[in-house]
Inverse folding.
């Protein structure tokens, strides 16, 4: 990897593979697993586009399978707002001090992991204005940290839709916003050649981990594994906050 040693590359590959396994088993949070340690290892400017690229690659096959179930009146306004807000987050990524941004990424993971662990859900009605606001917050977070999914996950899980529809909505949202985030970084001159190369190098491990996690899913108690994963994320991110 350009500018990085072999041990750093191997560590990044291991992180991506573990994130793929967790995402394959739990169905969420590849970015939450990868972003804090990769930001510490590679720096936020490289880690954010790498995570976005890997998430978009992973989400696309699922999107092909679930596209007919998407509830467009709900997801459409949210997507539009996220795409418009992503450049703001990309600007933050470009100008922010790396150490502060690393800690911000870790703090975001801790907050949303705690909310998911406690079973918190959005309690209001899914109005268009609310969808737009949540999409805008998510898009800005995505551009700056690569972690834009949690607010939308908490919001969509609160609705009346079936599991199949919610899964389809999330698949579309994650894939589309990850691509939008990458485009925003490219337009802002923050998508370096090193990020593209790193994504290509880490993609096989991430996809292999994802496939392994999907195959292993029937052997796990999903709820217990989710709790274990969230507690691990909280512990790991708390450690990064103290570095």
């Amino acid at each position: 990897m350009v500018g990085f040693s072999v041990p750093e590359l191997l560590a990044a590959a291991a992180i991506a593979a573990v994130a793929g396994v967790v995402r394959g088993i739990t169905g969420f949070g590849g970015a939450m697993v990868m972003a804090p340690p990769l930001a510490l290892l590679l720096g936020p400017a490289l880690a954010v586009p790498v995570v976005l690229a890997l998430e978009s690659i992973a989400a696309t096959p699922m999107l092909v399978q679930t596209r007919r179930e998407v509830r467009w009146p709900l997801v459409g306004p949210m997507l539009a707002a996220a795409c418009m807000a992503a450049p703001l987050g990309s600007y933050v990524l470009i100008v922010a001090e790396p150490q502060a941004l690393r800690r911000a990424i870790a703090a975001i993971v801790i907050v949303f992991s705690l909310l998911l662990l406690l079973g918190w859900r959005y309690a209001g009605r899914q109005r268009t204005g609310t969808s737009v606001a949540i999409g805008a917050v998510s898009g800005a977070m995505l551009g700056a940290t690569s972690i834009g999914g949690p607010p939308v996950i908490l919001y969509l899980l609160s609705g009346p839709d079936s599991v199949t529809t919610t899964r389809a909505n999330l698949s579309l949202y994650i894939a589309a916003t990850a691509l939008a985030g990458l485009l925003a970084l490219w337009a802002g001159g923050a998508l370096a050649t090193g990020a593209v190369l790193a994504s290509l190098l880490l993609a096989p491990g991430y996809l292999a981990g994802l496939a392994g996690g999907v195959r292993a899913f029937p052997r796990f108690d999903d709820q217990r594994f989710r709790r274990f994963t969230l507690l691990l994320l909280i512990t790991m991110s708390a450690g990064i906050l103290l570095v």
